[in-house]
Design goal:
This protein has one helix at residues 65-75; strands at residues 13-21, 27-34, 43-48, 57-62. It is mainly beta and 79 residues long. The chain has a four-stranded antiparallel sheet.
Length: 79
């Protein structure tokens, strides 16, 4: 199970983890990660299977943590 601070198989570090429920009550998880200080857009939010650390998909990439956090909250339906 993915947890805060984990290093994913793709090398990214999990900075935040949360979920939203879909229309039938299933939890859909998202992670906010830092990829690399050498990346042009080092922050990303991904959809993920909480039990499969290599399952990251549908990434939204950003230059700043603030931009990525805003997207992360939007994906979770908090905004």
């Amino acid at each position: 199970m993915i947890q805060l601070g984990d290093n994913l198989p793709n090398g990214a570090t999990v900075l935040a983890l949360n979920y939203r429920c879909n229309h039938v009550g299933e939890k859909k998880y998202y992670v906010l990660c830092f990829t690399s200080s050498s990346a042009v857009e080092p922050f990303v939010s991904w959809f993920v299977d909480i039990n499969d650390p290599s399952s990251t998909s549908t990434g939204h990439y950003y230059k700043t943590l603030e931009e990525c956090l805003s997207d992360f909250k939007t994906r979770l339906g908090e905004i």
